[in-house]
Every structure is written in C-alpha cells, then in structure tokens.
C-alpha cells in the first residue's frame, strides 16, 4: 500500500491540543480511509497511515500517540500476528488504546494477541461501531471514562452474576433446609459471583449442558434472535460443556456459540476475561492461535450452580 500523507501535522498550531491522536496501520487504501474517516467523526485526528511492512519493521519510534488502529483486511497472517504483538506491547508500555478491525477468519489471530482492557476487536463493523470503539478508546487513553456501552455490559454482567448467585443460594437453602447453616463455597464478592457447594456430589454430564444449549438455539425458530440475546450465559454454557468434555474452544467458535454479531461477542469475551471467569489458553502447536476456557473459578461456579439446580429437581435453562 502506498503510504498515506500526514492527516495532521504537529507543526500546525493547536495540533497537540486538538485531542488524542492515532496511528493507522493498514494494507488497504479503502480500509485506511474508512479508519481515518471514523477517527475524524470521533474527534480523534490521525497522524498518518502506514502499511504492515513498515509497522512490522518498527513502530516504537512513533511518539505522541494515544491510539493505534489496525485494519487487518489484506494483511497476511504472519504480518498481522507480528504487528498485533508489537502494537500490544507498545500499548501496554505507553497505556495506549488499540482498535483492531478484522475479518471473521482473522478473529483467532487477533484474540491470541489482544484481550486486554485497552484493546477492542471489531469484525466487519459499520461506521457507527467504528466510531463508538474509537470514542471508547479515546476516553480510556485520556483516563477519563469508559465507553457507555461497555459500562452497560459490565452492569449486565454484574446483574447476571448476582442473579446466578441468588438462585444458587436459594436452591442450596431449599436442599439443605431453611434453618441449616450456609456452607462455604466458591465466591468472589468483588464481582458479585458465587458458587455454593450444594451441588457437590451431583454428577453433571456434558450432554445435559449441550441439550440446554440446543433448546436455547431452538427459540430462534419461533422468535426473533434479539429477543433472547444473552451472550454471556450462552458462552458460559458452551465453555462449561467443553470443559466437561475436555475439549478446547477457539475464540472464533465461541463467537458463534454466543449467537450475536462477532464484534458483540468479542466485547463480551473481553468483559468475562476481565471479570476472571474466562482465561486465554495458548495453542502449543500454533502461536498465532488462542483458545478460551473457563477459569478454575468460572468452572467451579458453573459446576456448583448446575449441581444445585439438578439437586433441587429443576432444569438448567
């Protein structure tokens, strides 16, 4: 890709005070133009655009940045992996934001490098999604606030965790008697998450969890998908079943299991990872690929909850 000219120049009066600035990395003129247009709409001027070959050579000499935008379309897998790794290192060292736009087939490569709180992965986004992601990264880079949508999803995650905890505790109380002393269990009050051990000793089969997942997917035959969008729980169920099966799940496969657009699923994966319920697992055979699994705490919570539901004679939904 021919190098794009500087969009703003530091010699222009007021440039440094105009707001956060971004470096665009792209091998497609069209993708670079879309990124720069979104940056302008978000009030975040782009310093310049460079191609992946230049970024792979060295991007550490670009100072005064707040954001790095990576447009993965047309990039080779090897260059994409290398550039994302270097961009992630610089972003961590300098507290920068990263927004990476990828194709569906590039999700696993991106997720192998970017799952931190400052990174956002978009898949085939529209202009509104691009601008929203850049605005979120801009505010995070300034240390002012998080994106409203992210705050909303974090609140939904907390409510989900609290609801799971409430139901599990109620079931535990019913199975051991109202007057029984509560027993210790896996719990983390920091995220409102708990998993009482009332399900201990109850065998949970992967086939049971898969049946629940199939039943949830059947709703789409009768109702609009958006009526029941619940990506956090769908992913928890899928990873719980995979854990019981001792099977690894790629990030791209988990996005499919979430039954929502890939960008939404990736945002939720990041949220659940930050909450300590998911963990990234490297693929020893391919460093460009990463798997996602439940953390020990996440798995124990799902096991305890499913056991409590089963012991109470109810059905997991």
Protein topology:
Blueprint: E1 22-26, H1 29-41, E2 46-50, H2 52-57, E3 67-71, H3 77-94, E4 97-102, H4 107-113, E5 119-123, H5 127-142, H6 148-176, E6 185-188, E7 193-196, H7 206-218, H8 231-245, E8 249-250, H9 251-257, H10 262-274, E9 278-282, E10 290-294, H11 296-311
Parallel strand pairs: 1-2, 1-3, 3-4, 4-5
Antiparallel strand pairs: 6-7, 8-10, 9-10
Helix pairs in contact: 1-5, 3-4, 6-10, 6-11, 7-8, 8-11, 9-10
GO molecular function: DNA-binding transcription factor activity
Keywords: Coiled coil
Coiled coil: 150-177
Summed over residues and divided by their number, the pLDDT gives a mean of 79
CATH class of the largest domain: Mainly Alpha
- Percent range of helical residues: 40-55%
Shape: elongated
- The CATH superfamily of the largest domain is identified as Winged helix-like DNA-binding domain superfamily/Winged helix DNA-binding domain
Rg, rounded, reads 22 Å
Provide the number of structural domains.
Answer: 2
The separation of the N and C termini measures 50 Å
- Summarize the helix and strand pattern as letters: EHEHEHEHEHHEEHHEHHEEH
Report the CATH architecture of the largest domain: Orthogonal Bundle
Strand content: 5-15%
The structural class is alpha/beta
Number of strands: 10
Question: What is the CATH topology descriptor of the largest domain?
Answer: Arc Repressor Mutant, subunit A
Question: Main β-sheet, in a few words?
Answer: 5 strands, parallel
Regions with little confidence, pLDDT below 50 for 5+ residues:
1-18, 144-150, 179-193
**Main β-sheet, spatial strand arrangement:** 2-1-3-4-5
How many helical elements?
A: 11
């Amino acid at each position: 890709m021919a190098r794009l000219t500087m969009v703003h120049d530091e010699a222009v009066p007021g440039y440094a005070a105009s707001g956060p600035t971004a470096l665009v990395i792209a091998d497609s003129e069209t993708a670079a133009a879309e990124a720069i247009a979104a940056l302008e709409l978000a009030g975040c001027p782009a310093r310049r655009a460079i191609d992946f070959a230049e970024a792979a050579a060295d991007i550490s000499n670009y100072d005064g940045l707040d954001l790095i935008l990576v447009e993965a379309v047309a990039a080779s897998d090897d260059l994409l992996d290398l550039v994302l790794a270097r961009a992630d290192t610089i972003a961590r060292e300098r507290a920068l934001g990263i927004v990476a736009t990828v194709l569906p087939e590039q999700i696993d490569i991106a997720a192998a490098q970017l799952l931190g709180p400052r990174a956002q992965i978009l898949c085939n986004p529209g202009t509104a999604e691009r601008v929203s992601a850049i605005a979120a990264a801009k505010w995070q880079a300034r240390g002012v606030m998080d994106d409203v949508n992210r705050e909303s999803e974090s609140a939904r995650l907390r409510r989900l965790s609290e609801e799971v905890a409430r139901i599990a505790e109620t079931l535990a109380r019913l199975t051991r008697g109202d007057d029984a002393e509560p027993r210790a269990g896996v719990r983390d009050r920091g995220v409102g998450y708990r998993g009482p051990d009332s399900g201990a000793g109850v065998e949970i089969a992967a086939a049971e969890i898969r049946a629940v997942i199939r039943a949830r997917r059947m709703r789409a035959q009768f109702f609009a998908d958006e009526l029941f969008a619940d990506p956090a729980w769908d992913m928890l169920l899928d990873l719980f079943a995979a854990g019981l099966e001792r099977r690894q799940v790629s990030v791209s496969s988990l996005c499919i299991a979430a039954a929502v657009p890939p960008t939404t699923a990736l945002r939720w994966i990041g949220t659940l990872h930050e909450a300590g319920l998911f963990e990234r697992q490297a693929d020893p055979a391919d460093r460009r690929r990463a798997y996602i699994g439940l953390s020990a705490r996440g798995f124990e919570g799902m096991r305890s909850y499913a056991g409590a539901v089963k012991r109470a004679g109810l059905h997991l939904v």
